[in-house]
Design a protein that fits this description.
Length: 182
Amino acid sequence: MEENKKEWYVVNTYAGHENRVKDNLVRRMETMGIEDNLFDVVVAEEEEIEYKNGKEVVKMKNLFPGYLFVQMIMTDEAWYVVRNTPGVTGFIGSSGGGAKPFPVSEKEIQPILQRMGKGERNIEINFAIGDRVKILNGPFSGIEGTVDSLNDDVQTASVLIILFGRETPTEIPYIDLKKVEL
């Protein structure tokens, strides 16, 4: 493990307390002066639309209940602060006995961050305007449609799907689309 390298780690928390632990961690980061070693804390959530009593209700759905992602330089001080934050039960990838955890690989963390709108890199896509794609996540998961336009700035595609018998353009993140091979 390279010393002084900013990497992502997975922190285990009590399920349902992820946002409270995130707030505690951010507050401790500031009060204990470790902003040089602790950079970002992410609860992987996405909007979920539900309909109750005929009204649209937007709720946040946790993609990984009981876990947060922390970007940090793994120093003894930063490791101690995170481990001893109220609600944290440990790090994933630590064998215990005082062993520091292993970081999450870039290949694993980038799709998660991209989905949260925090990705650092552009997603490479294998589809173009006019191609048939399948939606992988979200309320339209499993539905196929045709790519109408691409917006590389925000990494979304306008996909024409059949909704209530009509072709309807829908904005879908690149990460949630897969080209359908005909």
